[in-house]
Structure formats: C-alpha cells, structure tokens
Amino acid sequence: MSHEGSCHCGSIRITVNDDPVDASECNCSICRRTGALWTYSSPTKVKVSGEGIGYVHGDKCLTLFHCNTCGVITHWTPVDPDYDRMGINLRLFEPSLWTELPRLYVDGASW
Ligand SMILES: [Zn+2]
To answer: In angstroms, what is the span from residue 67 Cα to ligand 1's centroid?
Structure first.
C-alpha cells in the first residue's frame, strides 16, 4: 500500500509504496537528538518531492535530510547508490500508520 507523509510545512513530501512493519528508535549521536522514528525501505519504493538539506556525519555512509523551512528530519539516503536501503521518518505520517507498530531499539551508538 502507498502512504504519504510530509514535513511540518509541507515543502517535503514522501510517498512510501511499502507497509512499515516496525518502528526503529536509534540511540546514535544524531538520532537521540532528533527523536526520529525510522522505517527502512528500498529507495525504489520511495518517492521524495521537495529539496531538503543533507547532512553527512560520522562514518559518512548516509546523508540525513531535514527541511530547510521547518527543520523536520525527513529521511536518510545511503551515500553508496548501490546500497538498497534508506530510512524514512515515520513521524511524518499519520500516527495511525505507526503508533501500534512494534518498537525496535537500534544500538547505533555502538556501531
Ligand atoms: Zn518543512
């Protein structure tokens, strides 16, 4: 099924053609600050419209995007284009999509 979410001001819209099965919270240095709740999907199933600001940190394997206007963290994409996985912030979507999902706790701080 297809789900559409957006940042607070609406300049960035994300459509995911996938059904999230769980919601991941990560304790790495950036996720613990932003409070994003992640689902992961193949970039081929995700459409992002609107320009965000990319931030590359740490081991430089992913780019984390946020909205230039409202500041909401929207998604991350792999720096390596062959890596078939990206992260989407579930908090952009209607709560009914994600509040009941099992929470996974990702120990990103130890990677
Ligand atoms: Zn925005």
So the answer is: 5
